[in-house]
Amino acid sequence: MTTQPDAATLDLLASKALMVRLETLRLSRIAGAGHYSGTFSAAELLAALYYHQLRIDPRRPDWPDRDRFVLSKGHAAIGLYPILADLGYFDSSLLDSYTRLGSAFGDHPDMRKVPGIDFSSGSLGHGLSIGLGMALAARVASRDYRVYVVVGDGELAEGQIWEAAMAAGHFRTGRLVCLVDRNQLGIDGPTEEIMTAEPIEARFSAFGWSCQRINGHDLTSVLAAFADLRPDDIGPPQLIVADTVKGQGVARMENDLKWHVGNLGPDDYEEVRRELVGGSDRDR
Amino acid sequence: MSSSAGATVTAEGPSSGPAGLDQSEVFRGDSRARSSAKGIAPRSVPAFVAGDELADLADHDARVVVLTADLASSNRLNDFQARHPERFFNMGIAEKNMISVAAGLASAGLMPFVGTFASFAALLGYEQIRTDCAYPRMPVRVLAHHSGMSLGYYGTSHHALEDLAAMRAVADLTVACAADANQLRAMLRASLDLAGTLYLRLGRGRDPEVYADVPSGFRFGEAVRLRDGGDATIIATGSQVHPSLGAAALLAGRGLDVGVIDMATVKPLDVDAVRDAATTGVIVTVEEHSVIGGLGGAVAEAVADLRLPVALLRHGVHDEYVEIGPPAALYAHYRLDEPGIADVVSQFVDALT
């Protein structure tokens, strides 16, 4: 049933993923530090969600029937703000205030300050519960929106994730979609050394979820996974484990722990910027 | 008339599970009881009425949904479940998830009422109440029942003597305590028009009647003067309103004229009521809570901020874990029953003169 996405779609999404990375560089420079690598690992997922998958209308951020998006790994907000600006939720010049006193844009997103943010996040482990609540609300109100929650792999150590996973399986909230940014690394090292995350699909399956596992940087695979999502309200909640590379796109950051939060100096900034733009050109 | 602890937990223990709700005690003498799907739902006797009231509200307000954590038969939210099963969610024994789910429900336009023991709602779910409910100003209503030491010999794990202090520190959170079933109904009705998150502290469902009818003019943030008195003023909240009234009556017999204020809303505090109480020269706060950070703390802050010339005593639990014992015995031990409160007040007044 999956149709091959056309080249124009893939080009558009790749360009948006590049925008996410370049804007992450720029905003981190304003802040003096940034969550680079865990944002880069999610760049294709965010681009594919916002420019292909989500049923949204930036002119109506409170549209009751919109799909919901919860960035449970809130520290990747630096990559989400530029998408919301690009889509027109707010003027992109506002991003220049990123993290400065009184700004709407902090390291973690605040739904009361940023149009387009469906829920505030930052404390890991909460987002799947929030998404479950949104999905149950759709059932109560007979709405057909979907809820997409992006969680980190280190975040899977949070007990509340499993409370939510258990409850979603129990209530069979088929329109709840959890995407795991499986970039393999926490702050202190590989997740499997800090706290074992695998087998992720087996764990969720045991709680009644249906599961897919894909390459989270291959946009064709991401779109195929989206296309395979079932539309039913009542049914297994749906998990997509996206295998990713922490720091994807910047050689010095890939799989290097120190870029979870880091700061590029001025010279390095230009070098990394050229690498990202050049890498993107080469990929085409 | 005995104190609020008059209905004791029997030696054999509560007959209806961890709630400590002995059904025969609860429903004794209730001639106006009416049946519901799960038994008898008393409309005006001391018992949990939240499920019944919320079911009525839900008949007219599509936003109302109810969640609990495997305690529906304890907190009587099964009365709601019976009438609105599609708007009731039993989330199992997973309080953190339950509160965050409520926040997600609220973000989509619903008004979730979340019921569980105060100890678990406030202490286990504290970060979820703060980060997922109050901070994004979600209209979640936390029904924190069996607060204080009302679970008696269940012990410290099931007591909540810190919850008001914890909740008061959270911005954009309304904190209130219901004195009885009628006030609880009034609070639930008023909550439909309340912006932001509400932490509503309840007793164990046996609270003797303070208000003969559902008070019509209830507003969050407004204290209620229940008794005038020129020698001193008791400011009480929740379960301690009723015994404070009894204590004032006892003290009247001893020649001490003591007023009583029901500070139903602990945050935002009715500072005008505190100012008014200070005119008697003596304030005693009474709460089934630690004297740190709860009603007494709030009143002390107001007295300091307003530079009120008043002698203030904070009565409650003094920075300790309470003993094991049936609730009635505990209330007597900690002087939170009528004679105890009367003694605390009269001794304080005597010491001043």
Which spans of chain A have pLDDT < 50 for at least 5 consecutive residues? none
Shape of chain B: globular
Structural class given helices, strands, pairing of chain A?
alpha/beta
Total domain units of chain B: 2
Total strands of chain A? 5
The largest sheet of chain B has its strands arranged as: 4-3-5-6-8-7-12
- Count of individual beta strands of chain B: 14
Low-confidence stretches of chain B: 1-46
CATH architecture designation of chain A: 3-Layer(aba) Sandwich
Strand and helix map with partners:
The complex is a heterodimer of chains A (284) and B (353).
Chain A: H1 7-31, H2 37-40, H3 43-53, E1 68-71, H4 77-87, H5 127-140, E2 147-152, H6 159-171, E3 176-182, H7 191-194, H8 200-206, E4 210-215, H9 219-227, E5 238-243, H10 266-283
Parallel strand pairs in A: 1-2, 2-3, 3-5, 4-5
Chain B: H1 23-27, E1 34-36, E2 39-41, H2 50-60, E3 64-68, H3 72-75, H4 78-83, E4 88-90, H5 95-107, E5 111-117, H6 118-124, H7 126-134, E6 141-145, H8 163-168, E7 173-177, H9 181-191, E8 197-201, E9 224-227, E10 232-236, H10 241-253, E11 258-262, E12 265-267, H11 271-278, E13 282-290, H12 295-306, E14 311-317, H13 327-333, H14 338-352
Parallel strand pairs in B: 3-4, 3-5, 5-6, 6-8, 7-8, 10-11, 10-13, 13-14
Antiparallel strand pairs in B: 1-2, 7-12, 9-11
List keywords for this structure.
heterodimer; A: 284 residues; alpha/beta; Rossmann fold; 5-stranded parallel sheet; globular; B: 353 residues; 2 domains; 7-stranded mixed sheet; 14 strands; 36% helix
